[in-house]
Every structure is written in structure tokens, then in C-alpha cells.
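User: Could you go from structure to sequence for me? I need the amino acid at each position, not a summary. C-alpha cells:
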């Protein structure tokens, strides 16, 4: 059984951190929480890297740790009661034209949003997304198509439709 060295782990994290942030932001919708989730996932992955049986699954293994950390943060936040307005969501997309897309993704039902976040923000295949979410591939494919249809309708309705260049 080959183990992951400290150097190879750090090298992998350097390449993968942007994707990890996108996934965490897709789940949490706030920059600070997404950064916390990524930091914690990287730390936990480092601590437990010797437990990974097959180094070829490092990306999937670390993504699963990240998703679990996002769920932990979401559970913790459900218990918190805030007395003021929540802060503005972090601008994940820099282009102003992407703001309707960002809002439309956030408005998706959770089961559909998870699939979209992993498939399009995380760059995972249907098979990898199915493994990460512990769902059949057919379900992931169906949810992906359904979510894309909802997004298409939502974006077409936004300001007279983005297809018209508005």
C-alpha cells in the first residue's frame, strides 16, 4: 500500500484548492464559511492522509471530507440564531453578468444544487458525482438535467432573458 507523502499532498492541495473553494462556496454561499471548510478539510486530510488506501482516490477522498465539513458547518449554523441581517453573500463570480447565474444556483433545491456544484463548479463526472453523493449515476444524470432546465428558465426570465444579450 503506497502512502501519500507530505510533499505530494501539499502539491496536490496547491493545484486543487480553487476547485475545493468553489465546491464549498456552492454548499455554503458565504466566502468566510467556504474558506473555513476548505481549511478544515485540508487539515483533516493531512492528518489522516496515511489512512487513504489508494492514492489514486485522493481527489475523491478529499472532496468527501470537504462535503462532510460543509454539512458540519451547515448543521452548526442551523443552531445559531442571528439578530441582524445576514452579510452579503461573497461574490464568487467576478463578472456582473454572472450574478443572475449565482442567484439561480443558490435558489435550486438542495438535492439539485449539490449535483450542479460538484459537476460544474467541481468539474466532476457523473460517475464521480454519484460516488461522492452516494447516489446511482442515473439519479445524478436526471438531477443534472432537471437543474439545468430550471436554471435555463430562471436565466431566461431574468431581465428579459440572457439569450437576448441583456
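Assistant: Here is the amino acid at each position, in order:
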Amino acid at each position: 500500500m503506497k502512502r501519500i507523502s507530505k510533499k505530494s499532498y501539499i502539491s496536490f492541495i496547491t493545484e486543487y484548492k480553487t476547485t475545493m473553494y468553489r465546491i464549498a462556496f456552492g454548499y455554503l454561499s458565504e466566502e468566510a464559511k467556504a474558506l473555513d471548510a476548505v481549511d478544515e478539510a485540508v487539515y483533516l486530510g493531512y492528518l489522516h492522509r496515511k489512512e487513504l488506501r489508494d492514492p489514486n482516490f485522493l481527489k475523491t477522498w478529499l472532496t468527501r471530507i470537504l462535503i462532510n465539513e460543509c454539512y458540519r458547518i451547515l448543521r452548526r449554523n442551523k443552531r445559531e440564531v442571528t439578530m441582524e441581517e445576514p452579510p452579503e453573500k461573497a461574490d464568487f463570480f467576478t463578472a456582473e453578468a454572472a450574478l443572475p447565474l449565482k442567484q439561480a444556483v443558490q435558489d435550486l433545491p438542495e438535492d439539485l444544487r449539490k449535483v450542479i456544484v460538484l459537476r460544474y463548479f467541481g468539474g466532476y463526472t457523473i460517475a464521480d458525482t454519484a460516488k461522492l453523493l452516494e447516489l446511482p449515476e442515473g439519479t445524478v444524470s436526471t438531477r443534472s438535467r432537471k437543474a439545468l432546465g430550471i436554471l435555463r428558465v430562471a436565466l431566461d426570465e431574468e431581465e428579459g432573458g440572457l439569450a437576448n444579450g441583456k
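One structural detail worth keeping in mind: The two ends are 55 Å apart (CA to CA).
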